[in-house]
UniProtKB/TrEMBL annotation:
Heme binds at residue 125. Pfam families: p450 (PF00067). The keyword Transmembrane helix applies. Its main location: membrane. This is Cytochrome P450. Its cofactor is heme. PROSITE patterns: CYTOCHROME_P450. GO terms for cellular component: membrane. Belongs to the cytochrome P450 family. Keywords: Heme, Iron, Membrane, Metal-binding, Monooxygenase, Oxidoreductase, Transmembrane, Transmembrane helix.
Length: 202
């Protein structure tokens, strides 16, 4: 969000309209928060957590589109490539939640990142629903209450963190300097109430 202030602004406009200033987002808001849903989908596509999934081993001889795959072969699915195919996702390196929206609704004809980011078949990630719901709620709650401010270098240029990925099985931004501040007095109140409820529960 620090890199894309206009996208942050659009999400906050939607949150203001649907949720309003007096409460935090809830799962009952899910169907109405189309733009927030699209941000979550684009996050899973743009800088996916496991770009090459998890390797699988073929237990018996197989064939795929004329390729013979002998038993014992290791198969690595390039999910990154599937979700950065420019024919399916124009300008794939750019973060564009709009690519998932048509006529104000999520467009079911666009390839769904959630069908590729969590692996495939019998060993597909069992945490995918928990993870997707948590991601949606985290994005909604953070953007509802906080403004994320992009960091600038000493010359005043916006810091470009978009291509800086930490290497490894799991990928993620190396370091994204940014700051966050309450969007308004109402937002600060919501954060303080939520924090005190959290402490009471502990
Ligand atoms: C954004 C978050 C997550 C991503 C991108 C992710 C992705 C994946 C992927 C790609 C696999 C390998 C699937 C395959 O073998 O093809 C996997 C497996 C697994 N994930 Fe996740 N996962 C996430 C969150 C979670 C969460 C929150 C949980 C638990 C609550 C979880 C539990 C597991 C388990 C237990 C497996 C192993 C399944 C098996 O081998 O049978 N994951 N995940």
């Amino acid at each position: 969000m620090g890199l894309y202030p206009e996208i942050q602004r659009k999400a906050q406009e939607e949150l203001d309209r649907i949720v309003g200033p007096n409460r935090l987002p809830e799962f009952s808001d899910y169907d109405d928060l189309i733009y927030v849903q699209a941000i979550a989908l684009e996050s899973m596509r743009w800088m996916m957590v496991l770009p090459l999934g998890v390797p699988h081993r073929v237990t018996r001889d197989d064939e795929y589109k004329g390729f013979f795959i002998p038993a014992g072969s290791t198969i690595i699915v390039n999910a990154w490539s599937i979700l950065h195919d420019p024919d399916v996702f124009p300008e794939p390196e750019n973060f564009k939640p709009e690519r998932f929206i048509k006529d104000g609704r999520l467009d079911p004809s666009v390839r769904n990142p959630l069908e590729y980011a969590f692996g495939f078949g019998r060993r597909v990630c069992p945490g995918r629903h928990l993870s997707s719901a948590s991601l949606f709620m985290t994005i909604a709650s953070v953007l509802h209450t906080l403004k994320i401010n992009p960091a600038e270098d000493e010359d005043g240029n916006l810091f470009d963190g978009s291509t800086m990925l930490a290497a490894g099985l799991a990928a993620g931004p190396n370091r994204v300097p940014c700051s966050a501040s309450p969007r308004s007095a109402d937002a600060e109140h919501l954060i303080r109430v939520w924090c005190s409820m959290d402490q009471e529960e502990q």
